[in-house]
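Troubleshooting entry. The earlier prediction with cytidine-5'-triphosphate gave an output that would not parse, so I re-checked the input for stray whitespace and re-submitted. Clean input:
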Amino acid sequence: MSTWAVLVAAGRGERLGEDRPKAFVGLGELPLLAEPLRRLDECEWVDHLVVVAPAEWEEPVILLAEELGASKAGACVTGGETRTESVRLGVAEVPEDAAVILVHDAARPLLPAGLVKRLLEALGAGFDGAVPALPLADTVKRVRDGVVAETLDRDGLVAVQTPQAFLAPVLRRALERGEGTDCASLVEATGGRVTTVEGDARLLKVTTPADLELVASWLR
Ligand code: CTP
Ligand code: MG
């Protein structure tokens, strides 16, 4: 019963606006990718790792994994045009007998040690999928053409993060489905039961330069 992690790092990082993909922008002394790669490799609940690299950055990914001594990182594949496509390409490298697949955004470097355990426990309790979630602090409104159309009832609304954990066959089936902003939405659409576990504010997704600065400050 093995657990595989697919680390998606193939995005361009357009909103960060640097001269290289987000995964290779500096965070401390190393490229951003080093942090989530090392954390997943050191996680006792993860058996194997697939890294999904930006086109033409496969070699630097392999060299970085070697430099870090990330011995679980057995495969590196080139990503696709969308996040879902990159996940699909990564999952294609996971052997058929894998029990669980975790999908994690390289753009969320500060993966806390205990989170993977909480996700796997939720699968053990009988769910098809489990995702980290945080309550919303702000009031949420729907706006159309600059006018507030609706204020949503915040009760029951959460913001979800990665890693997201799934029973491997359920995720494979869901990925045949199409596109989604996260993997859980595809699993939900195919009738899978997904639960939430407590997320972590420091698992912030680096999107803008300010996010990168914040994450760097948490690491110092
Ligand atoms: N991702 C990917 N393949 C893509 C798009 C995104 O592997 N075609 C990955 C990113 O590398 C990131 C995660 O999915 O780890 C979340 O995506 P996002 O934060 O949107 O990163 P980017 O797409 O790189 O950033 P931007 O949208 O600003 O270009
Ligand atoms: Mg993107």
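This one parsed fine. Residues 58-68 form the longest helix (11 residues).
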